[in-house]
Design goal:
This protein has 405 residues and is an all-alpha fold. The protein has three domains: 117 residues; 202 residues, hpI Integrase, Chain A (Orthogonal Bundle); 64 residues. The protein has a three-stranded antiparallel beta sheet with strand order 1-2-3, with no helix packed on it. Helix 3 crosses helix 6 and helix 9 runs parallel beside helix 13.
Length: 405
């Protein structure tokens, strides 16, 4: 492990690599970290290849620029190496993109048409994600005995946060005076780099407050924590004195996977490579998206989840909050049985009202149909009576007879 860390630090300190990563990290720290992972894998590939083991990620730049090495052959071999490491297809594509950007940054152009012809990338075959319903989420929450994890899951399942967005919530980002509770999502941890305000249910608010109160409870010893505005809500302690949500991710995911095992929902996908679980923390975000789309419409759901939305869709904050409170929140409640019972009664009342409307429409339709039938029979009898009185009328066109009637 120490050897891997030292090798990673050694690669990161190389001048060409350092300047490239510095450029990539200006807009996204995550991109910088991902690209560094790609360069580390590329260095390991060079060491494993008999024809390239004399080169490093830095020295290969000169070899490619003078034509000593065919860049397309190198990239194609790199793809084969990544496949042999049983990495997921998105990871392979990310690492290849990182290497292409690295060469392009150092003035080595890779022609897209040539790349597509000479470097065969693996195809990603998409399958529908496992769907969650209210009962699934309720079962997960009922089996959860971890205060922090239960509060976090309720925040995700009612606010539709991305995993990192939820972990990045600070005390000062939560507005409990708003009804429903409003939480600010920082642009630094948003995938689209756009800050937004999100609402959570009253139920999630209750468990979130309980967690915060328990976290800062008086322990009668030196371990008693004092609340600070910049404290991360779901962090128990800080690493090196700096609150960083990324330090929480692995711990939270491990706790969630253990919980899935308890409730028997830890099945894995049959993708042949790294078999990922069918249910993940992101599944809660998909559930919120589905519910809000059904209850408040597509435009509102796209805004709520922080996706790209129509520039023509604009609403004042109080209106957005009202929509969530009246149309969405009751369908994003899982353990508050009083609310669930009221919601169930409301749904039953709506169904009864729909049944009455459908019966009324059916009665109206049958009445209109009977009226049309009577009018048709009356006109038919008139026509037959006219023909009996004057047989020559049987040769007259029907539309003429209609006019005479």
């Amino acid at each position: 492990m120490n050897q891997k860390v030292s090798r990673r630090a050694e690669i990161e300190s190389l001048p060409k690599v350092s300047s490239f990563l510095l450029s990539m990290g200006r807009n996204s720290i995550c991109s910088e970290r991902a690209y560094l992972n790609g360069l580390v894998s590329f260095q390991y590939f060079l060491l494993q290849d008999n024809d390239l083991k004399s080169y490093s990620v830095e020295s290969i730049i000169l070899a490619v620029s003078v034509g000593e090495i065919n860049i397309y052959r190198v990239l194609d071999s790199f793809v084969s190496f990544l496949i042999s490491q049983k990495l997921s297809i998105p990871t392979i594509k990310l690492y290849v993109t990182a290497i292409r950007s690295y060469f392009a940054y150092h003035d080595i152009d890779i022609v897209t048409s040539k790349f597509k012809t000479k470097v065969k990338m693996p195809k990603a075959y998409r399958e529908d994600e496992e769907a969650l319903d209210v009962q699934d989420i309720r079962n997960i929450l009922l089996a959860c005995n971890n205060r922090r994890l239960k509060a976090y899951l309720l925040v995700l399942a009612s606010g539709g946060f991305r995993t990192a967005e939820g972990l990045a919530i600070r005390l000062k980002d939560t507005d409990f005076t708003s009804n429903p509770t409003r939480i600010h999502v920082r642009k630094e941890y948003s995938k689209t780099r756009v800050a937004r305000d999100v609402y959570i249910s009253d139920e999630a608010t209750k468990y979130l407050k309980n967690w915060i109160d328990w976290k800062y409870r008086d322990k009668d010893n030196k371990w008693t924590k004092s609340a600070k505005p910049d404290d991360l809500v779901f962090s128990v302690y800080t690493v090196k004195g700096v609150p960083n949500p990324r330090h929480l991710y692995v711990k939270i995911v491990n706790e969630f996977e253990k919980l899935l095992s308890v409730v028997g929902m830890d099945e894995r996908k049959e993708d042949g490579l790294r078999r990922r679980r069918k249910i993940t923390l992101h599944s809660l975000r998909r559930f919120v998206k589905t519910v809000i789309s059904d209850q408040a419409g597509q435009d509102y759901s796209e805004w709520f989840l922080g996706h790209a939305k129509s520039p023509y869709y604009t609403k004042k904050e109080i209106d957005r909050r009202q929509i969530y409170a009246t149309k969405c929140m009751k369908y994003l409640t899982f353990l508050d049985y009083a609310t669930l019972e009221a919601t169930g009664k409301s749904i039953e009342a709506k169904l009864r009202e729909k049944d009455r409307e459908m019966q009324a429409m059916k009665d109206k339709y049958e009445l209109e149909l009977e009226t049309i039938r009577d009018e048709t029979n009356q006109k038919f009898n008139q026509i037959m009576s006219m023909i009996q009185q004057n047989p020559k009328l049987s040769q007259v066109k029907p539309d003429v007879l209609q006019k005479k009637i």
